[in-house]
């Protein structure tokens, strides 16, 4: 039973394929439905893991990967159909690549690290999800959004994506510098 949250997370990862396909095919109503199911599954696996103490190291790694896969699929798919600017998809993916590359470098050069998403990083993810959902709602014709709302979300996502990427680079660079100096016995 304790593997149910991991199974739900794996199924959420698999939803990336139909989501990307639906976006490319212009089936925005179904893409929105898949995105909502993915979001609900994220809430469900988190609830089950916490409620029944079914957390695992594997689940802790898989959950953010599943979220990133879905967001990347959405940003790429929406950029591909012209609903979001391509530069925004590049920015969102670039930030994640920088964070992962930095984590791997830190782990290999300095030592083990624990994932510590900052408030800014969490805000970035919430705004990215809001922009994707607002765009899908608009495209699916379930709701008409004022143009300024999408523009505001676009500006907010751009600003927080850049700021949180820089925040990660600065914070983890300083941490790496301090740790290596501590290991070498030098002054901080």
UniProtKB/TrEMBL annotation:
List the Pfam families hit by this protein, alphabetically: CDP-OH_P_transf (PF01066)
Please verify whether the record's keywords include Lipid metabolism: yes
Give yes or no: UniProt keyword Membrane.
yes
**E.C. designation(s):** 2.7.8.5
Looking at its record, which EC class is this enzyme? transferase
The protein's annotated pathway: Phospholipid metabolism; phosphatidylglycerol biosynthesis; phosphatidylglycerol from CDP-diacylglycerol: step 1/2
Question: In which compartments does the protein localize?
Answer: Membrane
Q: Which InterPro entries match?
A: CDP-alcohol_PTase-I (IPR050324), CDP-OH_P_trans (IPR000462), CDP-OH_PTrfase_TM_dom (IPR043130), Phosphatidylglycerol_P_synth (IPR004570)
Q: Which Gene3D superfamilies match?
A: 1.20.120.1760
Q: Which UniProt keywords apply?
A: Lipid biosynthesis, Lipid metabolism, Membrane, Phospholipid biosynthesis, Phospholipid metabolism, Transferase, Transmembrane, Transmembrane helix
Enumerate the transmembrane spans. 7-24, 30-48, 69-93, 119-139, 151-170
Report the catalytic activity: a CDP-1,2-diacyl-sn-glycerol + sn-glycerol 3-phosphate = a 1,2-diacyl-sn-glycero-3-phospho-(1'-sn-glycero-3'-phosphate) + CMP + H(+)
Q: Tell me what topology the record assigns in the membrane.
A: Multi-pass membrane protein
Main location, first listed in the record: membrane
Q: What family classification does the UniProt entry report for this protein?
A: Belongs to the CDP-alcohol phosphatidyltransferase class-I family.
**Which protein is depicted?**
CDP-diacylglycerol--glycerol-3-phosphate 3-phosphatidyltransferase
Q: What organism does the UniProt record list as the source?
A: Tahibacter harae
